[in-house]
Amino acid sequence: MRLLVTTTPDPPDALVARARAVAERCASQYVVRRGSVARMCRDTDNDVAYVVRRTREELRAGAVSLHVHPGLFYLKREAGATHPLIRALAPPGGAPVATVVDATLGLAGDALFVATQLAVDVIGVEASPVLGALLEEGLPRMAREAGAWSAGAARVTLRRGDALDVLRTLPDGAVDVVYLDPMFETPLGAQAGFDLLRLFAEDAALSPELLAEAWRVAARRVVLKVAGTATPPGFSAGPGWNRRVRGQAVDYLVLEGELTDPEYEAPTLGDPADARG
Ligand SMILES: C[S@@+](CC[C@H](N)C(=O)[O-])C[C@H]1O[C@@H](n2cnc3c(N)ncnc32)[C@H](O)[C@@H]1O
To answer: Global pTM?
Structure first.
């Protein structure tokens, strides 16, 4: 995928410096803005443009664009504590959760919701340099917006790089929960722009090494998002997958040392009785 980096027309020096820095980090070409982005892509034989604008940074490919935004925040907020992701991360009746590593940050949709709903600090790790650049601009912008998501955005700290490398820098039990949401092999119904994200996302499947490292760093539990139809990965860590919280299209597999709520004492792995959310 060929990417150029440019700015809005007549950019101040700071925008040019930022675009050059993004281009270097993404091993892409910085192109001085002349005319339409579509035309620049055509003329330079690139497929996608990363545009550094005054108000935000975005990816553009034809009529599709992608930037860091609150996404499904309000929808998730409506479900609140009953949302399956929240029930997986912080089961009712369990000890409070104060810190979460989101090891696969993406555009931070889940992290934003989790940081807001649980009022926790989230360390968000993103391996893709392009998505990392979008997040670097987008998280502080969302924190400044005075939206319902802004306090949550301010609680998400971005770590650019591979999750395995970042987790290796953390001591045993350094955070309460590690959350993993790797790219699915078969995309579920896509939102606009998701295909663009896929072009730049790290798409390696979950590895036993990453799971083991997540388990070492997590004091309470590791949570893995899977497709609702998926069987658990053929490997695990610690006590093995011992909870499955069902959502509508995706489920959350949980690996935890001790079950903290009677609701979850029965083995629920794959149990349709837990089909809420
Ligand atoms: C399905 S998306 C996550 C979406 C995210 N949960 C959200 O709500 O926006 C997976 C993201 O994890 C990133 N990723 C995958 N493997 C990674 C790894 N080993 N280290 C860091 N990031 C990784 C991908 O680049 C992609 O952006």
So the answer is: 0.92
What pLDDT score was predicted for residue 105? Answer: 98
- In the predicted model, is pLDDT for residue 16 greater than 70? yes
First-to-final CA distance of the chain: 37
Cβ of residue 167 lying under 6 Å from some atom of ligand 1: no
Give yes or no: residues 259 and 228 share one domain.
yes
Residue 71, CA atoms < 13 Å, CB-side half-sphere: 21
Q: How far is the CA of 165 from the centre of ligand 1 (A)?
A: 14
**From the CB of 250, is ligand 1 less than 6 Å away?**
no
The answer to whether the Cα torsion of 21, 22, 26, 31 is positive or negative is negative
* Residue where a domain terminates, one of 12, 36, 66: 66
Q: Which is more confidently placed, 212 or 275?
A: 212
The reply to whether ligand 1 has any atom less than 6 angstroms from the CB of 162 is: yes
